Amino acid sequence: MMRKLSEISFIRYGLVALPMLCSLTALAREPAPQPWPDDSFSRLKALALLQSLNADLLSHPSATVTLERWCGTHKLASEAKIVAHRIKGDDKPLPEGAREQLGIHADEPVRYRRVQLACGDRVLSEADNWYVPARLTDEMNRQLDQSDVPFGRVVQALKFRRQTLSAELLWLPLPDGWEMSGHLPPATGKALAIPAQVLRHRALLYTQDNQPFSLVVETYTSEVLAFEPEHVSLP
Question: What is the C-alpha separation between 95 and 204, in angstroms, rounded?
Answer without folding.
Answer: 13
